[in-house]
Design the sequence.
């Protein structure tokens, strides 16, 4: 699973996504709340800062863009200052707002949160002020939006609906979108509103309700896995869905498809703010499916991104780098230091972005001795991350005698992994590590001083992009060959 998740994240690409939904502006007013008003028993907020962020479907748009998607937004806003601010925020995030139309008779949906800071640091939401209209869009407005949708659907990889029940995604409007999407052979992912009637979502590919929304839709509380299975099955059958994903906060998500029905757990979190978690899940599932990912892998990724998001304050995005870092952190102990080239290059990419220097060396490391220990210490002293290319048994037999190696490749890898000076180990079957070096592109390539006359394999490659090649000093009289010969002579004497 670990390697599959890393491979998926690093290959998400830039899918084309149409996002239809209720676009909102979030305003946060931060201030100190250290005294009670003498006029009424309410906190007095001394304003320190005001921030604007994307909310509702706009939050999903920014999440999608952060994950690398090309997003075309379809929605409605008012003819007001908040609309200008919202569109500018979306444009700054690289989102296409050409499909967001203006309606004179309704305001841009805005949620204004007042945030008190106790002792200048502990954030607490005190109050929220909503400005909105939930009146259904007019027939003329709906037709304009449908026309925009038709223009874009053929070039889209996936369609997202984010429904907050603010008057846009009416039953007729939704059914038209479903029909157009189905005719185009595309998937449509829906984050439904909190309503008892999900009939307007019939024909979608997948819906992503949370626990409470699901309970309202199916008419019973979700308390255990049996309830999750029953609810998901009921929704899948009634709405003719390919999949149902019920998000279950700290428990993870329950996935129901035609082939599987299972609870996919997540890592427990220190939840700071759940605002925007559903948006993040929707965006992650959509991007994953757009790139050909299966539903289970999409849910596993969504568990990760949703978990990262709730550890942040307010509506927040999650980057590819954060996802990779989380996958690595969750699996560091399970995977050990031995890596495939796919997982290794993904991890090294992240560490490079943290300005860490990558050192590469290689060898058989058959019978470990003090010379090896000092050699690897030298490697560590010249960088932040030490990658050891380990000759496989097949590779060792190519370059040594037929009776080598003494220890098999897995035993040798285990011994190296026990050393603090080694961060990663990757095996290779070739006679030399040139192909490996080209893929890893280390900042520093190190070999022993005995390679000075023979020429270090990969030196020209590393130097070509500005890397360094260093020769490590040798411990006199210490080598694997000498150690083996001494052991043989002792055996002969006995």
Sequence:
């Amino acid at each position: 699973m670990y390697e599959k998740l890393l491979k998926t994240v690093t290959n998400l690409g830039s899918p084309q996504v149409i996002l239809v939904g209720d676009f909102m502006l979030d305003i946060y007013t931060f201030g100190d709340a250290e005294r009670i008003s003498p006029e009424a028993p309410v906190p007095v907020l001394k304003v320190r800062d005001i921030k604007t962020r994307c909310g509702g479907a706009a939050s999903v748009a920014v999440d999608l863009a952060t994950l690398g998607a090309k997003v075309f937004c379809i929605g409605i806003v008012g003819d007001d200052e908040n609309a200008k601010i919202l569109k500018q925020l979306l444009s700054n995030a690289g989102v296409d707002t050409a499909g967001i139309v203006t309606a004179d008779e309704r305001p841009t949906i805005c949620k204004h949160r007042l945030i008190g800071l106790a002792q200048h640091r502990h954030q607490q939401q005190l109050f929220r002020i909503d400005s909105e209209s939930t009146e259904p869009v007019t027939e003329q407005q709906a037709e304009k939006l449908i026309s925009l949708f038709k223009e874009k659907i053929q070039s889209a990889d996936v369609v997202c609906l984010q429904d907050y029940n603010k008057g846009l995604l009416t039953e007729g409007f939704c059914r038209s979108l479903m029909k157009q999407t189905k005719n185009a052979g595309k998937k449509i992912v829906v984050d439904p509103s909190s309503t008892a009637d999900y009939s307007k979502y019939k024909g979608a590919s997948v819906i992503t309700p949370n626990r409470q929304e699901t309970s309202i839709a199916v008419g019973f509380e979700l308390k255990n896995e049996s309830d999750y299975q029953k609810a998901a099955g009921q929704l899948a059958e009634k709405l003719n869905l390919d999949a149902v994903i019920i998000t279950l906060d700290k428990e993870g998500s329950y996935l129901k498809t035609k082939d599987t029905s299972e609870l996919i757990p997540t890592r427990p979190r220190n939840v700071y703010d759940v605002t925007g978690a559903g948006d993040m899940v929707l965006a992650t599932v959509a991007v994953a499916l757009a790139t050909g990912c299966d539903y289970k892998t999409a849910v596993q990724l969504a568990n990760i991104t949703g978990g990262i998001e709730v550890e942040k304050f307010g509506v927040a995005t999650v980057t590819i780098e954060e996802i990779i870092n989380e996958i690595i952190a969750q699996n560091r102990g399970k995977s050990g230091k031995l890596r495939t080239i796919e997982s290794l290059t993904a991890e090294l990419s992240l560490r490079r972005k943290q300005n860490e220097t990558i050192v590469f060396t290689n060898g058989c490391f058959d019978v470990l001795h003090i010379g090896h220990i000092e050699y690897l210490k030298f490697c560590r002293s010249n960088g932040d991350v030490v990658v050891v290319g380990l000759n496989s048994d097949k590779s060792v037999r190519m370059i040594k005698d037929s009776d080598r190696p003494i220890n098999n490749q897995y035993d040798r890898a285990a011994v190296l992994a026990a050393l603090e000076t080694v961060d990663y180990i990757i095996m290779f079957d070739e006679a030399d590590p040139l192909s490996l070096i080209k893929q890893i592109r280390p900042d520093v390539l190190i070999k022993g001083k005995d390679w000075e006359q023979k020429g270090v394999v990969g030196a020209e490659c590393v130097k070509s992009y500005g890397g360094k090649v260093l020769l490590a000093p040798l411990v006199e009289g210490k080598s694997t060959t000498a150690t083996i010969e001494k052991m043989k002579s002792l055996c002969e004497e006995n």
